[in-house]
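Hey team,

Filing this mostly as a record. A colleague (T.K.) asked me to run one chain through the structure pipeline before their review meeting, and I want the input and output archived in the tracker in case anyone asks later how it was produced. No errors, nothing strange. Just documentation.

Input sequence:
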Amino acid sequence: MGSGRVPGRFRLLELLEAEHAAMPPGEKLYCPHPGCSCPLLRPSNLWPDEPSECPACHRTFCATCLTTGWHEGFTCAEYGQLSADDRSPDTASLLRLGCSRGWRRCPGCRALVEREAGCNHVRCRCGARFCYACGKEYLSARPTEDNVHGTPGCECTLWHGVVD
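Output structure:
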């Protein structure tokens, strides 16, 4: 190697590194998948509801928030607010289904609840009481003049939005 010649594959790597270093910081990103981290050029026309594919590892990710896999049905902000447990593909799929069918999550145990009939008062299997119309927890279970189930933590009426 004393002749000053650089083998082809090392020269290619040098060219790629130089090209990558010349890219403006806002235009470059790296594949978020562990074990890959391929340097990429950020697309100028990112579609918020379309996954990107890494050309090196061929796995999908969101080029906007760099989430591995894909958060279909959620914006980046909505997905970012989910707990780590809720980000699994199976749970995220179930949450999308529940959202499309108007189900609510219990504020106590976070279980999905589907109301089949009746008023907006829900008593979950964990014991939490909440308003099905808005999801806010009841402040008290003591019956009032307006609500036999107690005092809701919202302004919704007991029969607000109920269609039977």
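Quick notes for T.K.: The longest strand covers residues 28-30. The chain has three helices and ten strands.
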